[in-house]
């Protein structure tokens, strides 16, 4: 990737250029923010690595100028600082910083963060290519053809057979939540024992309702849960590698905790609720530890549900061992 470095300390700048060059990146080094800003207006860079405190123009102002410049690309900006970043986290993110590293610089951590930046750049390029070739309405998802007519996506891709279905999240929201609400008749759900991987009393209540009035409810809840769990567990693993989690991922995990309560998966629900409450300092210091613990709870929950088989209601309660 093409990298722009803004660092006023000569030793730090030389070391950073050497590290990035050894990783195979093309590096343009500058001595302060003003020099970096001039270089950015002349050339295109995939990543900007900038110190925070610099003469003439600091890293925060440089970031704001870059984000205010309308270009067809999105440069990934990494802030370097020796200050306590936890106190300034929100300020830098609002300015447009994507990631940060503390001094002294950890070369291996920098490599990991740049791997994430490279993925984002590739995705941006892919999205840019798609939007350039295929204009799509952001609301109805109709596609504009070469004659400037807006057509349904199924009509536009007339040679492709489309199979319409629910994704697991929509199926849960639109089909399973109404059934759960009907079962509870307006009452709050029973969360189950938070100390247990799986509280079978919750599943027993679901099974009773299923048998009386909602065929297939438990199987559908378990199937939908299992299908959604894999991608979310992978998102948590990625957080463990990078220490980065966006707000959309936090919201998805918090919504998924509700589904854990639906099935009596108290320990996983507690782990997810704790995960989304991580502050910036905890996120930096404990990301590997927290991610490993949360993934372990995902695996334990899936293993516990698997013991019930595809149709848990069919198994007598006496034959089901209580998960620990």
What report would you give on this structure?
The protein is an alpha/beta fold and 324 residues long. It folds into 3 domains: 2-129, Rossmann fold (3-Layer(aba) Sandwich); 134-162, no CATH class; 168-319, no CATH class. It contains 12 helices and 7 strands. It has helices spanning 10-22, 33-42, 59-68, 89-95, 107-133, 153-156, 168-184, 200-213, 217-242, 247-263, 266-276, 280-306; strands at 2-6, 26-30, 47-51, 76-81, 99-102, 143-144, 150-151. It has a 5-stranded parallel beta sheet with strand order 2-1-3-4-5, with helices on both faces. The chain has a two-stranded antiparallel sheet with strand order 6-7. Strand 6 and strand 7 form a beta hairpin. Helix 2 packs parallel to helix 3, helix 9 packs antiparallel against helix 10 (247-263) and helix 9 (217-242) runs antiparallel to helix 12 (280-306). The protein starts with a strand and ends in an 18-residue tail after the last helix. Residues 310-324 have low confidence and may be disordered.
Q: What number of domains? A: 3
Task: Please state the average pLDDT score.
Answer: 81
The main β sheet shows up as:
5 strands, parallel
What is the C-alpha radius of gyration, as a whole number of Å? 25 Å
Q: Determine the fraction of residues in helical runs and give it as a percent range.
A: 55-70%
* Order of H and E elements: EHEHEHEHEHEEHHHHHHH
Number of helices: 12
The main sheet orders its strands as: 2-1-3-4-5
Helices and strands: which structural class? alpha/beta
Q: Give the amount of beta strand, in percent.
A: 5-15%
- DSSP summary, beta strand count: 7
- Quick one: overall form? globular
Unreliable spans: 310-324
Q: Oligomeric status of the shown chains?
A: single chain
- Tell me the span between the first and last alpha carbons: 49 Å
């Amino acid at each position: 990737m093409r990298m722009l470095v803004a660092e006023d300390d000569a030793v730090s700048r030389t070391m950073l250029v050497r590290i990035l060059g050894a990783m195979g990146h093309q590096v343009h080094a500058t001595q302060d923010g003003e020099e970096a800003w001039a270089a950015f207006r002349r050339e295109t860079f995939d990543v900007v690595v900038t110190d925070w405190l610099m003469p003439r123009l600091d890293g925060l102002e440089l970031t704001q100028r870059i984000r205010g410049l309308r270009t067809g690309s999105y440069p990934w900006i990494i802030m370097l600082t020796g200050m306590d970043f936890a106190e300034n986290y929100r300020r830098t993110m609002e300015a447009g910083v994507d990631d940060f590293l503390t001094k002294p610089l950890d070369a291996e951590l920098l490599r990991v963060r740049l791997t994430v930046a490279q993925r984002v750049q590739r995705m941006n390029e892919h999205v840019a290519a798609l939007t350039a070739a295929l204009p799509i309405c952001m609301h109805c998802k109709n596609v504009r053809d070469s004659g400037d007519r807006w057509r349904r996506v199924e009509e536009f891709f007339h040679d492709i057979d489309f199979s319409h279905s629910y994704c697991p999240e929509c199926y849960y929201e639109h089909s399973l939540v109404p059934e759960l609400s009907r079962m509870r008749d307006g009452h709050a759900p029973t969360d189950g024992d938070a100390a247990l991987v799986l509280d079978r009393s919750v599943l027993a209540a679901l099974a009773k309702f299923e048998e009386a009035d909602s065929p297939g409810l438990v199987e559908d809840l378990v199937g939908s849960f299992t299908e959604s769990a894999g991608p979310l567990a992978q998102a948590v693993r990625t957080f463990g590698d990078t220490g980065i989690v966006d707000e959309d991922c936090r919201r998805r995990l918090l919504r998924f905790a509700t589904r854990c309560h639906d099935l009596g998966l108290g320990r996983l629900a507690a782990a997810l609720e704790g995960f989304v409450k991580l502050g910036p300092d905890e996120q930096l210091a404990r990301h590997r530890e927290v991610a490993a613990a949360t993934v372990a709870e995902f695996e334990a929950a899936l293993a516990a549900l698997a013991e019930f088989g595809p149709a848990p209601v069919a198994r007598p309660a006496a034959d089901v061992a209580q998960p620990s």
